[in-house]
Amino acid sequence: MRNTASDIELRFHKLSGFPSLASFIASDRDRTTFVYKRFDELAARNLLYLQSELAELQSKQRGFDDDDLVADLATKQCARNYAEFMRAAKDAGNERQKERKALMLEIRQTMKDYREALMFESTMATMPAPSKSVLRAFQEEYYNRHDGDNEPFPTLGGSSAGVYDEIDDLVALRVLESPDRLTHFAHEHLAFLFPDRKRSRYGIAYASDRAIESFVA
After folding, report:
1. Start and end of every DUF6594 domain (predicted)?
2. What is the DSSP letter of 200?
């Protein structure tokens, strides 16, 4: 099948928005453009909600325990024998144990959600923000500054327009080792000697991390 000039152009130009931004991020073989928003404020709020939800469930559990302390022998047996507890909870007429089983399951799920969220945030806390040079190149693309004839505009619209504005609320998925002085110098001052021509686009020149690593070695 013969390729027309229009077909060839479409391979290099994506529809502005999620298609073009995804193509730009995926084009980086060194993965330095895998940059996303942390949403630290939302993450903190989510943990606070889960924490308070568990505090309410704990209070309810303690209330049930206080009630059971002065209850009849059958109820006390459910508090010490799991099989008896499950049998009583299946009894259509035993609302007391049905409520306790429902609370047990709610605590289990909420505790799971809370601890998973804690572990995720613990991991996120160790992941760095993108370097300033990476963010500058990313914003050059994201705000479409490569076209000098038009005013810059964000690739994503609506509430997503400013997601790449605050470096402190961004995370780089590739965790880079702290560079030695020579590597840092090469990145900052000699990058033009190590171009990655396959990735260069729209006036953005990329330096190949792999080529610089080989040079330093």
Report:
1. 18-216
2. -
Torsion over CA of 209, 26, 170 and 20, rounded to 10 degrees? 130
Q: What is the DSSP letter of 201?
A: B
Amino acid found at 48: L
What pTM value is reported for the model?
A: 0.75
- The two structure tokens encoding residue 170: 């961004």
- Do residues 155 and 17 make contact, with C-beta atoms less than 8 angstroms apart? yes
Cα 183 to Cα 180, 198, 199, 214, 215, distances in angstroms: 5, 22, 21, 10, 9
- What angle do the packed helices 181-189 and 209-216 form, to 10 degrees? 130
Contact criterion met (CB below 8 Å) for 38 and 171: yes
171 and 33 Cβ atoms separated by less than 8 Å: no
Q: Which residues pair with 171 in a beta bridge?
A: 36
Model pLDDT, residue 174? 86
Delimit the domains of the chain by residue range: 5-37+129-216, 41-126
